[in-house]
Design brief:
The complex is a heterodimer. By secondary structure, chain A is of the alpha/beta class. Chain A is built from 14 helices and 19 strands. Classes of the chains: A alpha/beta, B alpha/beta. Chains A and B meet through α6 of A and α5 of B.
Chain lengths: ~425, ~325
């Protein structure tokens, strides 16, 4: 059944494609954006929401999550999650991909990424064409890179032939085996097994070279070092078909956050030096890094409250993706338009998804947010499967007021009451 | 015969690391330990000031000498000493480390001595228990009582620590003994050198106060103290060093190599030694220069001082 028409009035419309932010209204009809502009009239029977001057943008597309966490997504203004294949069992079979795609219905679009190799072991290619037919929007190596260069070459050739983007984790497998931190003063002081930050550049350089050899599209899901940024920048200058993403912790934290063995700061890839962090922020601002993703990886406190090296890596970031991104905007490091493009249009384009645009006939996946509303992160009250975050106690700004998916209102805050 | 019973209270609840201790804290521990050396040399070695207190030695990683040393230290002070020696694998049968900590705590111990294979694990347990915790070695992080016993040994032999050239040699990357010694020796004003093949040298060792050397002869030149570290034999597997033969040829402490050090050099080793790998038997057994067995004796005295100091507040609370 088609939901009734929805008119959002008095909004600031953020169009990530045009890079504009202008006052206006937006009308939704039959699950699509029907019209945008000033002074739209409410059709008979339409629900009307007064946006009170807040920002209306496409609902967020989180281009990298490890769990399809509906509550966290809704709280974070996310209508689409690209699900990494590291599931139990790994998404290496068309039936599993089909099942994964249905996981979020009706509140969340889950777009699975197919496991590149069987059981993600890095040896035999999985049935990529069959998984593509079952709904996979790309192919991914998962939490680790493929160690065998010949397998990686064939993967890029094969996936490229299917028109699938290969998402390759950028850490040299042998260098990072058994390590939990980045080589540096902090790891030395704490006595933690560490790998040099160059483990990332080595992996990116190899994958870029192999992708250039094959002409296959490559996506690097997590660039975290200055050297990695430089490689991506050079490849883009050479017009190679490459995109990249990073995640908020790599923009906001350095390995100083490990002090006191804070296992909530144990991430994969590990936190880097502060100079790397600054380079990542600059690259996100200038578009070298196309996307900002949460790498949402909810873990129970039993898994996190462990000696640092034994704690599970990862953080639950989906509910914080927008406010942490906005903190870069508020610091003047990133424009609002650029941030929103990095969490909507950029992943939509790269993975051929219908959302991520604020234009007539685009799907009515919409997010209304107040970019200034302040609140404090409390890990034990974070919506979703778990609240493991290195940002506990941090003051942030940015509140989701309204989330619409396919024309249906999933969440609306009391500040923006719905009439009709 | 007993040590000083009146002294300033120790300003730390636990002994988790040397990093974070002041020079005064370290000197207080060494001074009190000094007095306990004499107790150990008497026929009657008991002091019994910890009578009625329960000391749990929870060793999650294999140890012989450190466990024995803590046990003897506790017993000489009259504590009821209980050893929990569990390999990691048996503890991993479902119970988290924090549950283990809560279980231990519920037995109402008065002091817990912990060794664990993971850096930071002892501090994590210390947060969850109501009594003082002594770190007996956590991963590659720290082994504070080892550094204290090393310092006590040096001070007794050399009369001072300040200004001495101390060369710490071998597998520094994986060594908690080296890390604790860097902090302690820097705090007491020694000139510290880190001597290791580049594969076993930690990143940024200078920031721990040590000057790096990758050639043994250069690192030993003029040294007043040489501390050898144990080379774990499994290091050959990970391509850290080629072989014990080559390691001994390049980093083994031999008579000839020791000739580069000061004539009255003191040779130390935290044990257990790999003779013919990091140290030649003739050097290890040289009673003039080797302080290796003395280190073991100092270990008991240092641990007595730590147990006494850390339980003092609790003892004062009792009627």
């Amino acid at each position: 059944m088609t939901p009734p028409d929805l008119l959002v009035t008095n909004a600031r419309l953020l169009d990530p494609e045009a890079g504009t932010l202008v006052a206006g209204d937006l009308l939704v009809r039959e699950r699509r954006i029907a019209a945008l502009g000033p002074g739209l009239a409410a059709p008979e029977g339409a629900r009307v929401i007064d946006a009170r001057g807040h920002v209306l943008a496409p609902a967020l597309i989180d281009s990298c999550v490890f769990r399809a966490d509906i509550a966290a997504a809704t709280a974070g203004g996310i209508a689409t999650m690209l699900l990494m294949p590291d599931q139990t069992p790994p998404l290496d079979d068309p039936a599993l991909v089909e099942r994964a795609e249905r996981l979020g219905k009706p509140r969340l679009w889950v777009r699975p990424l197919a496991a590149a190799t069987r059981r993600l072991e890095g040896r035999e290619l999985a049935d990529l064409a069959l998984m593509q037919a079952a709904g996979a929007v790309g192919v991914a190596t998962g939490r680790g890179s493929i160690a065998d260069t010949a397998v990686m070459l064939r993967l890029l050739r094969y996936a490229g032939g299917l028109g699938l983007v290969t998402v390759s984790h950028p850490e040299d497998a042998a260098l990072v085996a058994g390590t939990v931190a980045t080589e540096g003063d902090m790891a030395t002081r704490l006595g933690l097994p560490a790998a040099p930050a160059a483990a990332e550049a080595l992996a990116i350089a190899r994958d870029l070279r192999l992708a250039a050899l094959t002409g296959a599209p490559l996506h690097i899901p997590c660039v975290t070092t200055a050297e990695g940024v430089a490689l991506v920048r050079a490849a883009k200058a050479a017009e190679q078909d490459v995109t990249a993403a990073t995640a908020p912790p790599y923009c906001l934290l350095s390995d100083a956050a490990l002090a006191g063995y804070r296992s909530f700061a144990r991430l994969s890839p590990p936190l880097r030096a502060d100079a790397d962090r600054r380079a990542v922020v600059a690259a996100l601002a200038d578009g070298t890094i196309d996307m900002l993703a949460s790498r949402h990886d909810p873990r129970s406190s039993d898994e996190k409250r462990q000696p640092f090296a034994e704690a599970a890596p990862g953080d639950a970031g989906a509910a914080l993706l927008l406010p942490l991104g906005l903190s870069l905007v508020h610091q003047g490091l990133l424009s609002l338009e650029r941030l929103v493009a990095a969490v909507t249009l950029a992943p939509a384009r790269r993975f051929g998804l219908p959302g991520g645009r604020l234009q007539p006939d685009a799907p009515a996946d919409l997010l209304l947010f107040d970019p200034d509303a302040p609140w404090r992160v409390e890990s034990d009250r974070l919506p979703g499967l778990a609240g493991n975050t290195p940002f506990d106690g941090l003051g942030v700004q940015g509140r989701v007021l309204l989330l619409v998916k396919g024309g249906e209102i999933l969440h609306s805050a009391p500040e923006v009451p719905c009439h009709g | 015969m007993a040590s000083a019973t009146v002294s300033a209270p120790f300003p730390h609840r636990h002994l988790l690391a040397i990093e974070g201790l002041s020079r005064a804290d370290i000197l207080q521990l060494l001074d009190e330990a000094e007095a306990w050396v004499e107790t150990g040399r008497h026929a009657r070695k008991h002091d019994d000031r910890l009578a009625g207190l329960t000391q749990v030695n929870a060793f999650f990683e294999a140890s012989t000498r450190t466990l024995l040393s803590f046990e003897i230290a506790g017993k000489r002070l009259g504590a009821d000493v209980v050893n929990l020696v569990a390999s990691q694998s048996s503890l991993k049968k479902g119970e988290t480390l924090l549950d283990t900590a809560l279980t231990l705590n519920a037995m109402r111990p008065d002091v817990i001595v912990i060794r664990h294979e993971s850096s930071g694990a002892v501090a994590l347990i210390a947060e969850k228990v109501d009594c003082p915790v002594i770190n007996a070695g956590d991963g590659r992080h720290e082994h504070p009582t080892q550094a204290l016993l090393d310092a006590l040994t040096i001070r007794r032999r050399k009369g001072r620590i300040e200004g001495l050239k101390v060369a710490i040699c071998g597998d520094i990357l994986h060594s908690r003994v080296a890390r604790s010694n860097f902090h302690l020796l820097a705090a007491l004003g020694a000139e510290v050198r880190a001597v290791a093949p580049p594969t076993l040298m930690p990143h940024g060792v200078e920031r721990l106060g040590a000057r790096p050397f990758t050639r043994m002869d250069e690192g030993l030149a003029g040294a007043d103290v040489v501390m050898m570290l144990r080379l774990q034999l499994e290091r050959m597997d990970g391509a850290w060093v080629p072989s014990t033969r080559e390691y001994f040829a390049t980093f083994g402490l031999t008579e000839a190599r020791l000739a580069h050090a000061a004539p009255d050099v003191l040779v130390m080793h935290p044990g257990p030694m790999n003779r013919g790998v990091e140290i030649a038997s003739s050097v290890a057994d040289d009673i003039q220069r080797s302080a290796i067995t003395e280190q073991v004796e100092m270990g008991v005295a240092v641990r007595m001082a730590c147990l006494d100091l850390l339980t003092r507040a609790r003892r004062a609370e009792r009627p």
